[in-house]
Structure of DegT/DnrJ/EryC1/StrS family aminotransferase:
Amino acid sequence: MKARIPVMTPWLGEEEAQAAAAAVLSGWVAQGPRVAEFERAFAERVGADHGVAVSSCTTALHLALVTMDLGPGDEVVVPSLSFIATANVVRYVGATPVFADVAADTGNLTAASVDAVRTPRTRAVLAVHQGGVPADVHALRAACADWGVPLIEDAACAIGTTVGGKPVGQGALLAAWSFHPRKLVTTGEGGMITTDDAAWAERLRRLREHGMNVSAAQRHASSAPVLERYLEVGFNYRMTDIQAAVGLVQLGKLDAMIARRRELAARYESLLADVPGITPVRDPEYGRGNFQSYWVLPDPDFPVGRDELLAALAAAGVSARRGIMAAHLEPAYAGHPHAPLPVTERISTGSLILPLFHTMTEEQQDRVVAVLREQAGR
C-alpha cells in the first residue's frame, strides 16, 4: 500500500524545535520578548506599522470588533462562505452578521455584493481573503469609504498574498491573521492583528491582557513596584514566547513556502487542463495568492457528485476535504435571515480542497489527478 497523501502538513523541522527549546530554557515562556520580536517582524512583512499577537485569529477578529465599539443593534456584513468564526465573532459583541454573496471566481466579497445587503444599521464590513485568494480590497476600501463604514480584513489564510504587488494587510484599518497548522506560517495555534493606528494597537494590547494598563512583561522588567490598573473589561488572549519563537523561524521560510506552493499550483493546473468539467482556483487579475488551499469546482454535470469524488479520493489513499463551508447552512445559523446566496451555496456544496503542502512530490500530485481523471471518464 502506498502512503496516504495528507491534505496539508506544516513545514516544521529542527530549527523550530531548537527555537522552542531555547524559549523554554530561557525561563520566560509566557508573553514576552519573543512575542514582541515576532510582532515587529510580522508587521514589517505585511507592511503595517503595528502587530499585536494574540491566541488565535478568532480572538484577533473579536478584538478588532471590540476596538470598533460594535454592539447590539449594529450589523456587520460578512461572507457566509468562510470558516464559521468569521460570523461568530460578530455575535460575540452582540451585533448581527449579515451574509453577502461572493464572486464565483475568487470566493470573496465584492463591493456590489456588500452593497446589495447593507442597511442603515451597517456599521462595518468584514471581508475575507478566502483560502489565500486576495479580495479586491482597493474596490472594497473605496466603497466602504463612500458608505462611511470601516473595512476589517480577515486575512487568516493570506500571509504572503498580494494585491497590486503589495502585501495583503498593507493599508488595512485592521487585519486579522491565523497561525493554525493549516496556514503557511504556524505557531501551533495563534493569531495577529495588524494596523497602522497606534492608538488602536495600544488598546488591542491592553484588551488581550485583561484590560491592564501595563503588561506582565513591563511589570517584571521594572526594578520598582508596579501597581497595575484595569482600565476596561478585557480578555486573556495572549500568545506565548514559545509560539512566537516558532513563528519567527516560520516567517523566515515564508518566501520559500510561497514559491513552492505556487509551483505546485501551476503544475496542478497543467495536469488538470485535460480533465473535463473541473475548474481550479486561480489568481485574480488584480493580485497573486499564496495557495493556502487549492480547491477545484466540478461542473454541475460532472459524472459524480462532490461527495462521491471525495470518497473515490479517500479510497485511493488521498485525503481531500469538502470546499469552504457556508455558515448559513450550518445548524448554528438555522433560521438566521439572509438574502439569496446562490454563488456561496454552489461553491460550498460543490467544491473540494485537494492536497497541497511544501514537501508534496510530483508522484503524489500525479496520484491525486489520476483519481479525478478516472472519475471524469465515468
Summary: The first helix runs from residue 14 to 26. The domain at 14-253 is CATH 3.40.640.10 (Aspartate Aminotransferase; domain 2). DSSP finds 13 helices and 14 strands in the chain. The first strand starts at residue 50 and ends at 54.
